[in-house]
Design brief:
Blueprint: E1 25-29, H1 33-50, E2 51-52, E3 61-65, H2 67-76, H3 81-89, H4 108-116, H5 118-131, H6 136-142, H7 155-165, E4 180-187, E5 193-196, H8 206-213, E6 223-225, E7 228-232, H9 242-245, E8 251-255, H10 265-268, H11 283-310, E9 315-319, H12 326-330, H13 339-356, H14 358-366, E10 371-372, H15 374-378, H16 392-421
Parallel strand pairs: 1-3, 1-8, 3-4, 8-9
Antiparallel strand pairs: 2-10, 4-5, 4-7, 6-7
Length: 423
């Protein structure tokens, strides 16, 4: 009979591998009016399906600017991108249903306040003209205070979000959210940015912060909060991604809906809807749209370069429309009527762009335990907006894109095979 050994068991040697902590993930969403929100919902839905290993409702840090604040507040409150699509895009019949009409209600309080100031201002203008007969412009300038600072009331946005965020499992209190949320607005009197959700501002209701962040001057009046007036958070920066980077995230996923349009002939050849030889042929609205988008995007490009230098250990991945996407460019930023078609368009285009970038993104995402599910991207039957019926030309466009994806995949595999066989 064998006697038991008296030697103590030897502890196994360390394998040399250190247990790595889970990556901290941040999500930064830029603005862009209702069109921007529509694009972000479609893009996020596509990403949530194809990126395995990341939960868009459980990121460590969220940063929202303007329309992006609306989506960020929904995500951190547990609304998945697909739920956001059903509520805001398809108008799902439920208590949470979003009615686009609330964005178009007149700012009656603002109108009344400005109207009350008309008699004394008119008297001042008349007196100025009497005293300075040759300075009519000086008199007219005094009447400028009568003009409303916004056409539509943003208070309805606050009321709607306050209603859905106080339901069970959600909160309108930054301090009670399961993850950090920062919503950026601009102080009208100083021009400085303020991140609601940071210490000192986290007592402000989330819904009110969204209203302030999305208060685009001229469209919505400035939002009064504790004696200060706030307007759109994009006035200073496009994305404000540095807020998430300063929180020590390892991976930052950014979505930007607005890019300038590339109208070169090679792109126009694929454009059936908008046959412009040059953008100037579209008149002032098109020229202003291209100018606005170019300014916004140039700031984003500059910011991204700074982030790479200041945060070299953080992977920053940006998703945005293709610059040759005419549908995203020629749709009015404040249009909500084509939301179903545009959300489906954003969903399908993001799937296609993700497929094209899969080899570039795969190693960067893998460092954080995230992988791209190619089978999901290959599935031609997947759609987001179920209520939409694709037109025949739209179906042809999607089928062509899917065929191109498969062809690209085959060519990539062939290239790797040849490199292996003939190094």
């Amino acid at each position: 009979m064998r006697r038991p050994s008296s030697r103590k068991p030897v502890a196994p040697r360390p394998s040399g591998r250190r247990l790595r902590r889970p990556s901290r993930v941040g999500i930064a969403l830029a603005g862009g009016g209702p069109l921007g929100a529509i694009y972000e919902i479609g893009a996020l839905a596509a990403l949530s399906e194809a990126l395995h290993g990341v939960d868009f409702n459980h990121a460590d840090v969220y940063v929202g600017v303007s329309a992006g604040s609306f989506i960020a507040a929904g995500l951190v409150n547990g609304f998945s991108p697909h739920q956001l699509s059903r509520l805001f895009i398809e108008g799902d019949k439920s208590a949470d249903r979003f009615d686009p009409a609330i964005l178009l209600r007149p700012a009656l309080r603002e109108y009344w306040q400005r109207l009350r100031s008309l008699p004394p201002l008119a008297a001042q203008a008349a007196w100025h003209y009497i005293m300075h007969p040759g300075n009519i412009m000086g008199s007219i300038e005094r009447l400028g205070r009568v003009i409303p600072t916004g056409l539509f009331s943003g208070d309805e946005v606050d009321r709607y979000l306050a209603h859905i965020f106080v339901q069970p499992g959600r909160t309108n209190d930054f301090r009670k959210l399961p993850h950090k949320l920062y919503l950026v607005a601009t102080d009208l009197d100083t021009g400085e940015s303020l991140a609601f959700g940071a210490p000192g501002t986290d007592h402000i209701p989330v819904s009110r912060a969204v209203q302030a962040s999305a208060a685009l001057p001229g469209v919505f009046p400035p939002v009064a909060i504790e004696g200060r007036y706030f307007v759109d958070g994009a006035l200073r920066k496009t994305l404000h991604a540095s807020i998430a980077l300063e929180q020590g995230v390892d991976l930052l996923l950014c979505v930007n809906p607005l890019v300038p349009y590339d109208s070169r002939p090679t792109h126009r050849a694929r454009d059936r809807a908008h046959r412009l030889g040059k953008l100037v042929e579209g008149g002032l609205p098109v020229v202003l749209a291209q100018t606005f988008r170019s300014i916004i995007h140039s700031r984003l490009d500059a910011g991204m370069e700074r982030y790479k230098t200041a945060y070299p250990d953080t992977d920053i991945v940006l998703f945005e429309p293709n610059r040759s996407d005419a549908d995203m460019f020629f749709t009015n930023l404040f249009s909500y009527s084509s939301r179903r078609r545009l959300c489906e368009h954003a969903y399908q285009k993001t799937r296609f762009e993700l497929w094209q970038r899969r080899h570039e993104l795969a190693p960067r995402l893998a460092r954080h335990g995230i992988h791209i599910n190619a089978d999901v991207l290959r599935d031609e039957s997947m759609t987001l907006v179920k209520s939409i019926r694709r037109r025949r030309d739209a179906m042809l466009e999607f089928e062509t894109a899917n065929a191109l994806r498969l062809l690209t995949h085959t060519l990539d595999d062939l290239e790797r095979y040849l490199e292996h066989m003939y190094p």
